Structure prediction request, 212 residues.
Amino acid sequence: MLEQTLNFSSSKEDSEMLGNSKRIINQRINYYNDLAADYSKPGLVSNELGKKLIEKAEEIVAMKEETLPPISPNYTLEQIEQENKEWWPTHCEALRQGRGDILTGEYRDDLVYFCQDGPYRGLEQQKEREQHWWALIAQPEVTMVWPIVMFYGEFTYFEWNCVDDRTNETIAKGNVTWVRRGHRGACYLKTEQLTFYRDVFAPLELLKLITT
Prediction:
């Protein structure tokens, strides 16, 4: 009888664990459900949409104000989060197309950038190093994807990786947090862990493909 009771208890615990596992699995979502384009894997964004997103990116960069705007009833965290969601697909497309001019324009002049090569302050200290990173991830026959992106007020967290279209090897990956005060404020703090597996510095022919 004791053995039967123990087996019943174990079976009950197993059922509860299975139920919890199902609930966890059911919570998984596509992070792009309410965004203008899906950059979670290759082949989901048409050339036409990519062109429109670049045009939108240029418009957004032009909205950046000289002074960081305060969070207030006139510029709320809810509005900032919505603007960050609007900005996100334009950022992905700018990276895929190697638009260094747009990527630099997304930063404030007094940017603080924490990464293993840093820390960096302003827009000059990391400029040369970051151009190598952009050249490697935007090179021909390599596709950059962002399977995870999350938003909360000023904060945008995302994970990315780059895959060689021919060999299917992962050439780089990372995770990043931007603190971005919407279109008016742009990004004033960036933290990043990034790993490059195949190349660390880009050859000159790839650097020439980056628009600056």
